[in-house]
Every structure is written in structure tokens, then in C-alpha cells.
Design brief:
Blueprint (H helix, E strand, L loop, with lengths): L6 H26 L4 H14 L5 H24 L4 H34 L4 H11 L4 H10 L4 H29 L7 H9 L1 H18 L10 H18 L4 H13 L1 H5 L12 H24 L8 H27 L8 H6 L5 H8 L12 H23 L15 H15 L29
Length: 457
């Protein structure tokens, strides 16, 4: 009696292999900082276009929802690490860094895509730029967590990645409105798409965080508390989208509010001052890991195998390195303006790999723009290229070969005012592994800067 596996059995077989491969890839990533994106996308290519084990119709049905859910969970978890002592002095610089790097990245990628990858097809080039102009929080945040960075630098990376995720998805939504061929697009639709996402996302995130502190915070010892929190965060995302806001930004703000429960309690006295417990966060991390592995598998299954040609390959290779160099240049500019520490610039330049965000955005135009599936092969190649470039960049940074000397901030600058807080955080950070591009800060007060008051600001 021969073996005749059904489609369901084949899918479960491939999914099981994907999870095991993801676990193995995570071990490799922790040891060598090689992102597991590479292995999972490669498995998807084998299971999809090579052997035809995963039908494209099924992937298109579930992949966008799974990818978005992973982004929401990862960004929410990043928000939980952003206490006000880190957030307050770095927020403005992180916003400027994220906006400048994303806008310049979109312009560069769109221009090269229109010239070499999709000549004469500006809609495809614009969507390619919108997707690949942003670094991915699903790549940058785990890498930053594994590098042993100080809380201030790690928080800056988390903020930048979450903001770029939100910008990419908002811009992609605007492009969908503009490029929809149905003729239902109006100027009021565009105005709403431009004005509402950010303020609505922030407002719903603040309310969502307060409501969680009033209700679910007291139930964390009960069974399934972690799943309840995940369900709640996805609910916040859905409500925000219904109100035409940025769901990704709402998830980030919800996490930030919960992380700063003690400060919120000063305004709402009857809530508890406890945030999300480690056991609950551990479950969130594993659920996100599961969804992320499946999404990257699906991404590989959507690739249309073709010979991209020598010139497009050279352009994608140049972009893979150039996008990290662009981040490095923006970071140096802000450092010279005393908006961040000069010794942070190599690390900020390196943690710019593309991944989940880019893949989610690439899927959006499939039913809107003719020929949009042609985006996947160059998109996957650029995702892999930036992740390989990031791996090499971080390897060099880890050996101190790109680290510039630390420079004292100008006394009247934003970073100068924040320096006492950052010094205190540096002294409180424990553990032998203090990541690359982090300078050793003095243990005593500096004569040119005021000492932080006891207990923090």
C-alpha cells in the first residue's frame, strides 16, 4: 500500500520542518548573529515554487493576517521595554532618525527600482520602495536584544524599528488608495489616510494601555493570562484600524503605557503599578516565534522563480549595503548635532535588516496592482541581502573596528540634558556582555553635568 499524503498532511509536514528549522536557526542566530530569515524563506521556496507543496491561493489567504499579527506582538513587546527613563530623553531623536531613514530609503529604493528592476512601472517601484525602505522590527529588535546593548541604545533601536514599521504600513495604505483602479478613491479618503493614522494610533494605544492596567493586570496569575493579553493587543490593533488609525503604533503605545504603570498610577490612582509579568511575556515570545516562522515560510512560497538578470542583481547587492550605509550616515549626522552619542552610530547603522514588515507590505498590492507578484523575487533577494550585510556589519562592529571615540554632548543639547539619566542606566546595567558600540561610562558624577536626583526623574 503506497503513501498518498493529502494537502493537509503535506502542509503540516512542512510546517513542522519550518518550526524545527526556526529553532535551529535561532540557535545559529544567537551564536553567529545570522538571521533565521534566510533558512525559513529558503524552505518556503522549496515547498512552494520548486515542489509545489503549498498552493499560492492558500498562502495569499492566510499570510497577510499571520504577518500582521506577528508585527503587532513584536512591537507591543518592544513597547514593554520602554520605560520613561529611557523613552523621555530619546523619543525626539528616535522619531527624527526613523522618519529621515525611512523617507530617504524609500526615495533611493524607488528610484533604483524604477530605473533597473521595474522600468516604466512606477506603481510597482513605489510599492517596492515603501516595503523595502523600512528596517523590520521583527529583525532589528531580536538582534538588538541579543547584542547585550545598554538599555538606552537598545530602547533607541526598539523605538526606531517600531516607528519605521508604522510608517511603512501607513504609507503602503496611502499608496493602495491612490493606485486602486476601481475609481472609488477621493481626496477626502487621502486626507483621512494622511491625518488620522498617527494621532488615532496614539490615542487608542493610551486608552488601551490604561484599560489593560485596570483589568487584565490583576489576572496575570490565572491560566491563559498570556493568551488573554495577546488577544487584547490584537483587539486594540483591530479597533484602531476600524478608526482609520495605525494599529502598529497603537500596539507600541499600549506596551509603553503598561511599561510605565507606576507613572500612570499617579494619574489614575486606583490601578495597580505592575506591568506584564515575565511569565506572560515568555508565552507572547513563543507565540510570535511560531507565527513568524510560518509567515517566512509562506513568503518563500510566493516567490516566482525567474532569472532576474545581472544588472538587477548588482543593484540589489548595492542596495543591501547602501541602505545600511544610509542609516549610518543619518546616525552620524544626528550625533554631530548632539542628538545621540557618536559611539552609537555603528550599531544603529548595522541593525537595519529587512524582513517581516517588508514582506507584509509586499503582499498588500497583489489584488490591486497588476503584476504585483513580480515584487516577491527581488523583494526576497533584498531582504536576504540586507540581512547578510547586517550580519557582516555587526560582526565588524563587535570587534570594535567601526567604533568611533565617544564625544561629550554639548551641555545645552537634548543629549546633554539626558546624559545623567543614561549614565545612571549604564551603572545599573548588569552582566558581563556589554554590546558593541557602547562606551564605558564613568561611575561618578561628571563635573560638567548635573547629577540625576535619587530615584530617577
Amino acid at each position: 500500500m503506497g503513501l498518498h499524503p493529502t494537502g493537509t498532511e503535506l502542509f503540516l509536514l512542512v510546517a513542522g520542518i519550518a518550526l524545527l528549522l526556526a529553532v535551529g536557526g535561532d540557535v545559529i542566530a544567537r551564536r553567529f548573529r545570522v538571521p533565521d530569515v534566510l533558512w525559513l524563506v529558503a524552505l518556503g521556496v522549496l515547498a512552494g515554487p520548486v515542489f509545489g507543496l503549498i498552493p499560492v491561493s492558500t498562502v495569499l489567504l492566510v499570510a497577510p493576517a499571520i504577518g500582521t499579527a506577528v508585527l503587532v506582538i513584536i512591537v507591543f513587546d518592544a513597547g514593554l521595554d520602554l520605560e520613561r527613563t529611557i523613552l523621555r530623553p530619546l523619543l525626539a531623536s528616535a522619531v527624527v532618525f526613523a522618519v529621515v531613514t525611512y523617507v530617504t530609503g524609500v526615495l533611493v529604493v524607488t528610484a533604483l527600482a524604477d530605473a533597473f528592476l521595474f522600468p516604466g512601472n512606477l506603481p510597482l517601484s513605489l510599492f517596492f520602495g515603501a516595503a523595502l525602505g523600512a528596517s523590520s522590527g521583527a529583525v532589528a529588535i531580536p538582534v538588538a536584544n541579543r547584542m547585550g546593548l545598554l538599555p538606552s541604545l537598545r530602547g533607541f533601536v526598539h523605538l526606531d524599528a517600531a516607528i519605521e514599521d508604522a510608517l511603512a504600513i501607513v504609507f503602503a495604505g496611502i499608496l493602495l488608495l491612490v493606485l486602486t483602479p476601481s475609481g472609488t478613491f477621493s481626496s477626502s479618503d487621502l486626507a483621512l489616510a494622511l491625518v488620522l493614522p498617527i494621532p488615532v494610533g496614539i490615542a487608542v494605544g493610551v486608552v488601551g494601555g490604561v484599560v489593560w492596567l485596570l483589568t487584565l493586570a490583576r489576572w496575570q496569575d490565572r491560566p491563559y493570562a498570556a493568551l488573554a493579553t495577546l488577544g487584547y493587543v490584537l483587539l486594540v490593533y483591530g479597533v484602531t484600524k476600524l478608526l482609520l488609525g495605525s494599529g502598529i503604533l497603537a500596539a507600541l503605545v499600549t506596551g509603553i503605557v503598561i511599561a510605565n504603570a507606576a507613572g500612570v498610577r499617579r494619574l489614575v490612582r486606583w490601578i495597580g503599578a505592575e506591568g506584564v509579568r515575565p511569565a506572560v511575556r515568555a508565552v507572547q515570545t513563543e507565540v510570535a516565534f511560531l507565527f513568524r516562522a510560518l509567515f517566512l515560510l509562506f513568503l518563500g512560497a510566493l516567490v516566482v522563480l525567474a532569472n532576474p538578470g545581472l544588472v538587477p542583481l548588482l543593484v540589489l547587492a548595492a542596495l543591501s549595503v547602501g541602505l545600511l550605509g544610509l542609516r549610518f550616515g543619518v546616525a552620524r549626522f544626528l550625533a554631530e548635532a548632539h542628538r545621540l552619542d557618536l559611539s552609537w552610530t555603528p550599531t544603529l547603522g548595522g541593525v537595519g535588516g529587512r524582513g517581516l514588515t517588508s514582506a507584509v507590505v509586499l503582499i498588500l498590492p497583489i489584488s490591486v496592482i497588476p503584476g504585483a507578484q513580480a515584487l516577491f523575487l527581488p523583494g526576497v533577494l533584498l531582504i536576504i541581502g540586507t540581512d547578510l550585510a547586517m550580519t557582516a556589519w555587526i560582526w565588524v562592529v563587535a570587534r570594535g573596528r567601526l567604533a568611533p571615540p565617544a564625544q561629550p554632548p554639548a551641555p545645552g543639547s537634548a543629549l546633554g540634558r539626558a546624559e545623567p539619566i543614561l549614565e545612571r542606566l549604564a551603572r545599573e546595567e548588569e552582566g558581563p556582555g556589554r554590546g558593541p558600540a557602547v562606551r564605558d561610562l564613568p561611575s561618578g558624577p561628571r563635573p560638567d553635568l548635573p547629577t540625576a536626583p535619587p530615584g530617577g526623574p
